[in-house]
Amino acid sequence: MSKSKSDQRPLSPHLSVYKWQLHAITSILTRITGNALIVGVILFILWLIAAATSEANFLIMNAVISSWLGQLVLLGSLWALWYHTLAGIRHLIWDHAVWLDINTSRLLGWAVVLGSFVLTFLTILFL
Fold first, then answer.
1. 0.70 cut: is pTM over it?
2. What is the C-alpha to C-alpha distance for residues 40 and 77, in angstroms, rounded to an integer?
3. Cα→Cα distances 108→2, 65, 88, Å
4. 21-126: CATH, from 1.20.1300.10, 1.20.1250.20, 3.40.50.20, 3.40.50.11270
5. If we measure between CA atoms, which residue out of 11, 21, 66, 22 comes closest to residue 43?
6. How confident is the model over 72-101, as pLDDT tens digits?
7. Distance in angstroms (rounded) separating the CA atoms of residues 122 and 118
8. How far is CA 99 from each of CA 24, 95, 103, 104, rounded to the nearest angstrom?
9. For 27, how many CA atoms within 13 A lie in the half-sphere containing its CB?
C-alpha cells in the first residue's frame, strides 16, 4: 500500500520543542493546586471524623497525619493554599482589566510563585 500525503506531513511539535511560558505554568499550577487542596481537605475531614468517633480512630488518624508522608501532604496543602489564593488575587486584578501588559503580567506571575513559597515559610515559622 502506498503512503498518502498525510503520512508525509510532519507531526505537531513535541513538548521538547515547545518553550514553556510562565503564564502557561502558573495556569496549570492553579488547576493542580485547586485539586491538591481537595486531598488536604479530605485528610482534615477524616481527622475530624476520627476525633468525633473514638479515641482509637483518632490515634490512628493522628499517626497518619504525624507521619512524614502526612506532614509532607500538609506542607504541600499549605503551599497549595497560598499559591491558589495568590493566583486568585491575580485573576481578580486581571478581571478589572488592570496590569495586563506583558511585563507587569510576568511580574505578577513571579510574585505569585515566589510569594507562595515565602508565605508558606512564614506560616510555618510563626505557627
1. yes
2. 6
3. 53, 34, 12
4. 1.20.1300.10
5. 66
6. 999 999 999 999 999 999 999 999 999 889
7. 6
8. 17, 10, 9, 6
9. 7
